Amino acid sequence: MGRFSEFIAGSSSHENGNGNGNGHIPPPPNYNDSKVPFATEPKYPTEPPPPFPHLFACLHLGRTDRVRLIGVPQNVIPAVDEAIKRVWLPGIQQQGPYTSGWEWKVSGNPWQGFGIEAITARRLLSHILHALSAVGWDIHMSCDLSKKSYDKDTIFLHSVPPRQRYYFAISFNESDKIRIIDPPNDYVRDAFIRAVHTWPAGIQQEREKEPGCYQLKLRGYPWFSSDGTQIVEARLLACTILSAMESVGFELVSSVDMSTASENNRDLDTWYFASKV
């Protein structure tokens, strides 16, 4: 029998017998039989749901140079406009309505993630998130909603009471570098540095990459290793960094894929932390 025929035969056996040869497909789980008791028996409404309140919107990082707000009230736009103008020194080429949202096209290519723009792009997003919180829209989550090559995450926002939150970023770079960008003070920066120094293989180099950005270059290849020990230790390091930031009053609010990268320069997520509320 040829390889294709063997594949078809194998597929049929899985479809007909769930791969166990007895021809029986188990039923879905019955949660009424759960041994974990409900505090109270849930009562589900029978009437149609009410009209949905406007609780969510999103921030879209388009192409290599666009910032788009989708589904936010008009009074949000000036706050974000001011943040972009204050932080992105190359400036704004143009802005205006974009279907059901608002778009800024900035000079340069912040979402390519190369060179000096890799740092300033993350600084830009921190300031946009701060401006959004101040007018009542906190970051809720980020996710990938596109199958296109070189795509980026969409950042979802949740309507909340306006509040002042301080945001900063931690980025994982190349195969062995990690940066903290714009921590609020030396106390938070030093907690980050102490956490990274727990890396078992040690630190090759550390320095202030530019004002507001501190970089450490680790020994080995924590973000690109196939070695089982390094894979585990890299994840333990991530847990240590999270614990360190929690201990100084900051929580991880989202992990964002915000760069287009390239075939030869695979990007990693950037972590965004905010002061606890």
UniProtKB/TrEMBL annotation:
- Source organism of the structure: Kwoniella shandongensis
Q: What is the protein's given name?
A: Uncharacterized protein
- PANTHER family named among the record's database cross-references: MEDIATOR OF RNA POLYMERASE II TRANSCRIPTION SUBUNIT 13
Where are the annotated segments for Disordered? 1-44
